Amino acid sequence: MNGRPKANRYTAFFRRHGLAVGAALAAHRLISKLGKQSGLYWYRFYKQPLDTAINARTSGKLEFRWLEKYEDLLAQLPRPLPNLKARFEQDVQCLIAVKQEQVVACAWFGFGEFEEDEVRCTYVLPATAVWDFDIYVVPKYRIGRVFLQTWQEANRTLTQRGYACTLSRISAYNMHSIRSHEKLGAKKIGSALFLRVGMAQVMIASRRPYCSLSFSKKRSPRIDLLEV
After folding, report:
1. What are the residue ranges spanned by the domains of the chain?
2. What is the full per-residue pLDDT of the chain (228 aa) written as tens digits?
3. 67 CB-near residues (< 8 Å, 6+ apart)
4. pTM for the full model?
5. 16-224 sits in which CATH class?
6. Which of 31, 46, 195, 197 has the most CB atoms at less than 10 Å from its CB?
Protein backbone atom coordinates (compact mmCIF):
# COMPACT_ATOMS: atom_id res chain seq x y z
CA MET A 1 0.00 0.00 0.00
CA ASN A 2 2.75 2.46 0.96
CA GLY A 3 4.59 1.86 -2.30
CA ARG A 4 1.60 2.50 -4.57
CA PRO A 5 1.31 6.32 -4.10
CA LYS A 6 5.04 6.63 -4.74
CA ALA A 7 4.78 4.49 -7.87
CA ASN A 8 1.86 6.63 -9.03
CA ARG A 9 3.96 9.76 -8.59
CA TYR A 10 6.73 8.30 -10.74
CA THR A 11 4.22 7.25 -13.40
CA ALA A 12 2.66 10.74 -13.45
CA PHE A 13 6.14 12.32 -13.60
CA PHE A 14 7.17 10.36 -16.71
CA ARG A 15 3.76 10.77 -18.32
CA ARG A 16 4.06 14.54 -17.93
CA HIS A 17 7.64 14.84 -19.22
CA GLY A 18 8.06 11.78 -21.45
CA LEU A 19 10.61 9.04 -20.90
CA ALA A 20 13.74 10.77 -22.29
CA VAL A 21 13.10 14.21 -20.75
CA GLY A 22 11.88 12.67 -17.51
CA ALA A 23 15.03 10.56 -17.17
CA ALA A 24 17.23 13.61 -17.96
CA LEU A 25 15.40 15.74 -15.40
CA ALA A 26 15.77 13.04 -12.74
CA ALA A 27 19.50 12.84 -13.55
CA HIS A 28 19.77 16.65 -13.37
CA ARG A 29 18.27 16.69 -9.89
CA LEU A 30 20.69 14.02 -8.71
CA ILE A 31 23.77 15.65 -10.28
CA SER A 32 22.83 19.10 -8.96
CA LYS A 33 23.31 17.75 -5.43
CA LEU A 34 27.04 17.56 -6.16
CA GLY A 35 27.33 21.34 -6.11
CA LYS A 36 25.97 24.68 -7.25
CA GLN A 37 27.58 24.48 -10.70
CA SER A 38 26.61 20.87 -11.38
CA GLY A 39 23.69 19.56 -13.41
CA LEU A 40 22.41 18.13 -16.68
CA TYR A 41 20.99 20.95 -18.79
CA TRP A 42 18.97 20.16 -21.91
CA TYR A 43 18.10 23.12 -24.11
CA ARG A 44 15.93 23.42 -27.18
CA PHE A 45 16.53 26.35 -29.53
CA TYR A 46 13.57 28.13 -31.07
CA LYS A 47 13.05 30.65 -33.85
CA GLN A 48 9.98 32.87 -33.65
CA PRO A 49 9.09 35.23 -36.51
CA LEU A 50 8.28 38.77 -35.50
CA ASP A 51 4.64 39.36 -36.37
CA THR A 52 3.23 42.87 -36.48
CA ALA A 53 -0.23 41.34 -37.02
CA ILE A 54 -0.52 40.50 -33.31
CA ASN A 55 -3.39 42.64 -32.11
CA ALA A 56 -3.86 42.69 -28.35
CA ARG A 57 -6.09 45.56 -27.28
CA THR A 58 -3.89 48.00 -25.41
CA SER A 59 -4.70 49.75 -22.19
CA GLY A 60 -3.89 53.41 -21.64
CA LYS A 61 -2.83 52.49 -18.11
CA LEU A 62 0.19 50.54 -19.41
CA GLU A 63 3.39 52.34 -20.32
CA PHE A 64 6.24 50.61 -22.15
CA ARG A 65 9.88 51.55 -21.71
CA TRP A 66 13.04 50.18 -23.33
CA LEU A 67 16.00 50.17 -20.94
CA GLU A 68 19.60 50.04 -22.17
CA LYS A 69 21.10 50.24 -18.69
CA TYR A 70 20.11 49.34 -15.15
CA GLU A 71 17.42 51.52 -13.57
CA ASP A 72 15.95 51.30 -10.07
CA LEU A 73 12.56 50.13 -11.37
CA LEU A 74 14.17 46.78 -12.18
CA ALA A 75 14.70 46.16 -8.46
CA GLN A 76 10.98 45.30 -8.34
CA LEU A 77 11.64 42.13 -10.34
CA PRO A 78 12.11 38.87 -8.42
CA ARG A 79 15.70 38.50 -9.63
CA PRO A 80 19.02 39.01 -7.76
CA LEU A 81 20.18 42.59 -8.25
CA PRO A 82 23.77 41.61 -9.18
CA ASN A 83 22.37 39.39 -11.96
CA LEU A 84 20.16 42.16 -13.33
CA LYS A 85 23.04 44.65 -13.37
CA ALA A 86 25.39 42.11 -14.93
CA ARG A 87 23.02 41.58 -17.86
CA PHE A 88 23.73 45.07 -19.16
CA GLU A 89 27.43 44.24 -19.47
CA GLN A 90 26.37 42.57 -22.71
CA ASP A 91 24.52 44.22 -25.62
CA VAL A 92 21.14 43.75 -23.93
CA GLN A 93 17.94 45.78 -23.66
CA CYS A 94 14.96 45.25 -21.40
CA LEU A 95 11.38 46.10 -22.31
CA ILE A 96 9.28 46.81 -19.23
CA ALA A 97 5.54 47.32 -18.94
CA VAL A 98 4.77 49.81 -16.18
CA LYS A 99 1.48 50.59 -14.46
CA GLN A 100 1.48 53.43 -11.91
CA GLU A 101 5.28 53.11 -11.60
CA GLN A 102 4.99 49.39 -10.86
CA VAL A 103 6.64 46.93 -13.24
CA VAL A 104 3.99 44.41 -14.31
CA ALA A 105 5.93 42.62 -17.08
CA CYS A 106 9.29 42.54 -18.80
CA ALA A 107 11.04 40.94 -21.75
CA TRP A 108 14.80 40.89 -22.29
CA PHE A 109 16.61 40.94 -25.64
CA GLY A 110 20.24 40.38 -26.62
CA PHE A 111 21.89 41.55 -29.83
CA GLY A 112 24.76 40.14 -31.90
CA GLU A 113 25.97 37.59 -29.36
CA PHE A 114 24.57 36.39 -26.07
CA GLU A 115 26.41 34.71 -23.22
CA GLU A 116 24.41 32.00 -21.45
CA ASP A 117 24.19 32.36 -17.66
CA GLU A 118 23.35 28.75 -16.65
CA VAL A 119 26.16 27.00 -18.51
CA ARG A 120 29.31 28.21 -20.28
CA CYS A 121 28.55 29.04 -23.89
CA THR A 122 27.95 31.97 -26.22
CA TYR A 123 25.19 32.09 -28.83
CA VAL A 124 26.23 33.74 -32.11
CA LEU A 125 23.23 35.40 -33.79
CA PRO A 126 22.49 36.54 -37.36
CA ALA A 127 22.06 40.26 -38.01
CA THR A 128 18.31 39.78 -38.59
CA ALA A 129 17.62 38.11 -35.22
CA VAL A 130 17.60 39.04 -31.54
CA TRP A 131 17.89 36.76 -28.52
CA ASP A 132 14.83 36.80 -26.25
CA PHE A 133 15.01 35.60 -22.67
CA ASP A 134 13.44 35.97 -19.24
CA ILE A 135 9.94 37.01 -20.27
CA TYR A 136 8.15 37.68 -16.98
CA VAL A 137 4.65 38.78 -15.97
CA VAL A 138 3.72 39.60 -12.37
CA PRO A 139 1.49 36.71 -11.19
CA LYS A 140 -1.70 38.73 -10.63
CA TYR A 141 -1.52 40.01 -14.24
CA ARG A 142 -1.04 36.61 -15.89
CA ILE A 143 -4.75 36.17 -16.47
CA GLY A 144 -5.29 38.98 -18.91
CA ARG A 145 -3.70 40.71 -21.88
CA VAL A 146 -0.47 42.02 -20.31
CA PHE A 147 1.73 39.33 -21.84
CA LEU A 148 0.31 39.76 -25.35
CA GLN A 149 0.48 43.55 -25.06
CA THR A 150 4.13 43.36 -24.02
CA TRP A 151 4.97 40.93 -26.83
CA GLN A 152 3.07 43.15 -29.29
CA GLU A 153 5.17 46.16 -28.26
CA ALA A 154 8.36 44.10 -28.66
CA ASN A 155 7.24 42.95 -32.11
CA ARG A 156 6.42 46.48 -33.22
CA THR A 157 9.69 48.05 -32.06
CA LEU A 158 12.01 45.25 -33.18
CA THR A 159 10.35 45.06 -36.61
CA GLN A 160 10.83 48.81 -37.03
CA ARG A 161 14.53 48.31 -36.27
CA GLY A 162 14.77 45.77 -39.10
CA TYR A 163 14.74 42.48 -37.19
CA ALA A 164 12.82 39.52 -38.65
CA CYS A 165 12.74 37.03 -35.77
CA THR A 166 13.74 36.24 -32.21
CA LEU A 167 15.80 33.25 -31.11
CA SER A 168 15.67 31.66 -27.69
CA ARG A 169 16.61 28.62 -25.69
CA ILE A 170 14.05 26.84 -23.58
CA SER A 171 14.78 24.13 -21.07
CA ALA A 172 13.44 20.78 -22.28
CA TYR A 173 12.19 20.39 -18.70
CA ASN A 174 9.88 23.42 -19.03
CA MET A 175 6.97 22.04 -21.07
CA HIS A 176 4.73 25.02 -20.23
CA SER A 177 7.16 27.49 -21.80
CA ILE A 178 7.68 25.24 -24.84
CA ARG A 179 3.94 25.03 -25.46
CA SER A 180 3.51 28.80 -24.99
CA HIS A 181 6.23 29.57 -27.54
CA GLU A 182 4.88 27.04 -30.03
CA LYS A 183 1.40 28.57 -29.78
CA LEU A 184 2.95 31.89 -30.83
CA GLY A 185 4.50 30.23 -33.90
CA ALA A 186 7.97 29.33 -32.62
CA LYS A 187 9.79 26.54 -34.49
CA LYS A 188 12.50 24.32 -33.06
CA ILE A 189 15.88 24.84 -34.79
CA GLY A 190 18.18 22.69 -32.67
CA SER A 191 19.12 21.46 -29.22
CA ALA A 192 22.07 21.08 -26.86
CA LEU A 193 22.82 18.95 -23.82
CA PHE A 194 25.28 20.15 -21.18
CA LEU A 195 26.70 18.05 -18.36
CA ARG A 196 28.38 20.14 -15.68
CA VAL A 197 30.23 18.74 -12.66
CA GLY A 198 32.14 21.46 -10.88
CA MET A 199 34.27 23.27 -13.47
CA ALA A 200 34.13 20.41 -15.98
CA GLN A 201 31.58 20.81 -18.76
CA VAL A 202 30.69 18.52 -21.66
CA MET A 203 28.38 19.70 -24.46
CA ILE A 204 26.70 17.72 -27.23
CA ALA A 205 24.64 19.85 -29.66
CA SER A 206 22.90 19.71 -33.02
CA ARG A 207 24.54 23.03 -34.00
CA ARG A 208 28.22 23.78 -34.55
CA PRO A 209 30.60 23.10 -32.85
CA TYR A 210 28.48 19.98 -32.08
CA CYS A 211 30.58 18.84 -29.12
CA SER A 212 32.82 20.51 -26.56
CA LEU A 213 34.82 19.76 -23.42
CA SER A 214 35.87 22.70 -21.28
CA PHE A 215 37.17 23.48 -17.81
CA SER A 216 37.08 27.28 -17.96
CA LYS A 217 35.22 30.20 -19.49
CA LYS A 218 38.04 30.75 -21.99
CA ARG A 219 37.35 27.36 -23.57
CA SER A 220 33.56 27.63 -23.62
CA PRO A 221 31.84 26.81 -26.94
CA ARG A 222 30.39 29.39 -29.32
CA ILE A 223 27.12 27.96 -30.67
CA ASP A 224 26.50 28.93 -34.27
CA LEU A 225 22.92 30.10 -34.86
CA LEU A 226 23.78 32.17 -37.94
CA GLU A 227 21.84 29.96 -40.37
CA VAL A 228 18.27 29.80 -39.14
Report:
1. 16-224
2. 455 566 566 676 677 778 899 999 999 999 999 998 899 999 999 999 997 666 656 556 899 999 999 999 999 999 999 999 999 999 999 999 999 999 999 999 999 999 999 999 999 999 999 999 999 999 999 888 898 899 999 999 999 999 999 999 999 999 888 988 888 889 999 999 999 999 999 999 999 999 999 999 899 999 999 998
3. 73, 74, 93, 94, 95, 96
4. 0.89
5. alpha beta
6. 46
